[in-house]
């Protein structure tokens, strides 16, 4: 288990983070400049924090209270950089085996050959980095990190420089690697899809602070703050007033911006109190005039929290469409993401009237 808690000041920027990583993939998600990559550099030993500790099981990598600061080569950390950092004068095989110190040369070569097969690099042993594709370079960098038998694996934006089809394959490789080696793994990314696919848990970081950490579903569907919701592209965030709390306190009626819905209650909800709530754009359902409900994603029926609206605008976004829906002609209130297959079935037009359903189980009360 990797346990970190440290502070690092660089100019006006302060990185102050604490978290634990078990035999899982923890995704550090956040915008550029939030401190994601700096966190990895500190864990690896490239940068020394001002105070705190970095521990792996019973061993300390860094402990300011006890004057401990192990050098990089003593930490047993595998580190994969966004730009691969391959040695241009070395072959693929030489890059992979560089840094491997455990076992005989025969064992090292055997392990390298196994990794080449596992990562689909067979036949490239004698190639130099300039002869490889972007995906091959990244797989070589991953193989090199694994070949040294690290206790912890750090990956800094490992897919950012790759095109979409290659990213998908490398994502699968990373998942397969983790299933095989089961080491604490931290992946840095600012890509929402990448975070969702890779993360067993996700830590949302902003301006040097972890805003929320939890399982993938907790973070994506139950954001702790409005800031987290925005960072995770929860486009539908509303302020409202609690009009009524059910007798058993399990639900509450809320009014907001000209519409009224029922939400699952929290302990602190009281009639007359202010409330923040949200729903992901994939979870709002569009109900056609004849009552046929269509949606991008959801779990409930199509007759819950019904709101009359009309199409304000439509944007095509590659494999999906975003519908902007409003109650009045002034502006839109809701964003609904639809896969293209669903959009084609609906055949929506700008200005068309429709009904929306906000399934209660998918509406999250932030505060």
Description of the structure:
Residues 295-302 have low confidence and may be disordered. By secondary structure, the protein is of the alpha+beta class. It is 24% helix and 35% strand. The strands form four sheets. It has a six-stranded mixed sheet with strand order 7-8-9-3-10-11, with helices on both faces. A six-stranded antiparallel sheet has the order 17-16-21-18-19-20. It has a five-stranded antiparallel sheet with strand order 2-1-4-5-6, covered by helices on one side. The chain is globular. The relative contact order is 0.11. Helix 4 runs parallel beside helix 5. The protein has three domains: 2-229, P-loop containing nucleotide triphosphate hydrolases (Rossmann fold, 3-Layer(aba) Sandwich); 234-278; 281-358, OB fold (Dihydrolipoamide Acetyltransferase, E2P) (Beta Barrel), CATH 2.40.50. A hairpin with a 5-residue loop joins strand 12 and strand 13 (251-256).
Structural class: alpha+beta
Mean pLDDT: 91
Helicity level? 10-25%
* Poorly predicted spans: 295-302
Placed side by side, the strands forming the largest sheet appear as 7-8-9-3-10-11
| CATH overall fold name of the largest domain | Rossmann fold
How many domain modules?
3
CATH superfamily of the largest domain: P-loop containing nucleotide triphosphate hydrolases
Distance between the termini: 33 Å
Q: Under the CATH scheme, which architecture of the largest domain would be assigned?
A: 3-Layer(aba) Sandwich
Number of helices: 9
Query: Which assembly state applies to the chains in this document?
Result: single chain
* Main sheet record: 6 strands, mixed
- Number of β-strand runs: 22
How large a portion of the residues is in β-strands, by DSSP E? 35-45%
CATH class of the largest domain: Alpha Beta
What overall form do the CA principal axes indicate?
Answer: globular
């Amino acid at each position: 288990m990797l346990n970190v808690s440290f502070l690092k000041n660089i100019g006006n920027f302060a990185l102050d983070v604490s978290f634990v990583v078990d035999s899982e993939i923890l995704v550090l998600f956040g915008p550029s400049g939030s401190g994601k990559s700096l966190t990895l550099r500190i864990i690896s030993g490239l940068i020394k924090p001002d105070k705190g500790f970095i521990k792996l099981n019973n061993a300390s990598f860094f402990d300011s209270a006890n004057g401990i600061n192990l050098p990089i080569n003593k930490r047993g950390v595998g580190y994969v950089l966004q730009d691969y950092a391959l040695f241009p004068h070395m072959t693929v095989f030489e890059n992979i085996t560089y840094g491997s110190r455990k076992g005989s040369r025969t064992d090292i070569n055997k392990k390298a050959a196994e990794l080449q097969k596992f990562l689909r690099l067979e036949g490239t042993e004698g190639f130099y980095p300039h002869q490889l594709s972007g995906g091959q370079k990244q797989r070589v960098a991953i193989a090199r990190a694994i070949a040294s038998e690290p206790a912890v694996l750090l990956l800094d934006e490992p897919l950012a420089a790759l095109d979409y089809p290659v990213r998908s394959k490398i994502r699968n490789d990373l998942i397969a690697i983790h299933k095989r080696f089961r080491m604490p793994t931290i992946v840095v990314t600012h890509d929402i899809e990448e975070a969702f696919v890779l993360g067993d848990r996700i830590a949302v970081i902003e301006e040097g602070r972890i805003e929320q950490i939890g399982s993938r579903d907790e973070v994506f569907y139950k954001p702790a703050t409005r800031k987290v919701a925005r960072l995770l592209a929860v486009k539908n965030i509303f302020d409202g007033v609690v009009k009524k709390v059910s007798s058993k306190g399990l639900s509450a009626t809320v009014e907001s911006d000209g519409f009224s819905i029922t939400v699952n209650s929290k302990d602190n909800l009281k009639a007359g109190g202010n409330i923040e709530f949200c729903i992901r754009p994939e979870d709002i359902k569009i109900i056609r005039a004849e009552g046929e409900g269509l949606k991008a994603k959801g779990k409930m029926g199509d007759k819950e929290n019904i709101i009359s609206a009309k199409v304000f605008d439509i944007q095509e976004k590659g494999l999906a469409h975003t519908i902007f829906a409003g109650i009045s002609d002034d502006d839109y209130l809701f964003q609904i993401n639809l896969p293209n297959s669903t959009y084609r079935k609906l055949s929506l037009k700008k200005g068309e009237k429709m009904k929306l359903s906000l399934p209660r189980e998918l509406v999250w009360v932030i505060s």
